[in-house]
Design a protein that fits this description.
CATH architecture: 3-Layer(aba) Sandwich
Shape: globular
Number of domains: 1
Helix content: 25-40%
CATH class: Alpha Beta
CATH topology: Rossmann fold
Strand content: 15-25%
Mean pLDDT: 95
Structural class: alpha/beta
Strand order of the largest sheet: 1-2-4-3-5-6-7-8
Low-confidence stretches: none
Order of helices and strands: EEEHEHEHEEHEH
Number of strands: 8
Length: about 200
């Protein structure tokens, strides 16, 4: 469900138009800029994914401008799936446009599944104030080590990206993982718990 303040528009990406939805809490409440990436576009991932919407709602509630985009080939976004390369470039361009539009706000990057992989790459170029990875697809994409303080949230019963794979990825980094008991990959029935973790652990 879209928030009444949400604005849907087309931004400029590396391959043409990028469809975006922006939730702006208003100049008086604006405390940060949160860019939120959706799961794999070839498996139904869109900016309207429930996990992505939950993250956007959390950050909006904290006073962040919450920005979601559709990856290439999804909705009104031009281009075709590029295995994370073009998607990273598009987010970098969107970040620049949002910073021009809203000013130098603290930057939060958040992503779900494939979107977590993309945002981890974006983070290497932008050095955000905070990186939030939900259900990172470490078994499907070469997720590089991330900065200390990165918030990683994973479902205990994830059957797409098993928890043990995420722990194996996190262990060499001494990176804590927040595990949501009983949650699968898409956090069905667990979105309230996901929101609680984000609101408790990450603020704009």
């Amino acid at each position: 469900m879209r928030h009444p303040r949400d604005e849907r528009l087309l931004l400029q990406g590396a391959a043409g138009n990028v469809e975006a939805v922006i939730g702006d809490p208003g100049q008086e409440r604006r405390r940060g800029l949160a860019l939120i990436a959706h799961p794999h576009p070839l498996y139904g991932g869109t900016l309207d994914n429930k996990v992505v919407q939950t993250l956007a709602k959390c950050f909006f509630g904290q006073g962040c401008v919450a920005v979601r985009i559709n990856f290439r080939g999804v909705g009104a976004t031009d281009g075709v799936f590029d295995e994370g390369r073009g998607e990273t470039e598009d987010w970098l361009l969107v970040a620049r446009q949002m910073q021009q539009r809203y000013g130098a706000l603290p930057l939060v990057l958040a992503g779900f599944s494939f979107g977590a992989f993309v945002q981890a790459q974006v983070a290497q170029r932008l050095e955000p104030a905070r990186l939030v990875l939900v259900g990172p697809a470490v078994n499907r994409f070469p997720l590089q080590p991330v900065a200390p303080g990165t918030l990683v949230i994973h479902g205990e019963e994830d059957d797409v990206v098993p928890l043990r794979d995420v722990l194996d990825w996190a262990r060499p980094q001494s990176l804590p993982i927040v595990v949501v008991p009983g949650a699968g990959h898409f956090f069905h029935g667990k979105l309230v718990e996901l929101a609680r973790v984000v609101n408790h652990s990450c603020a704009c």
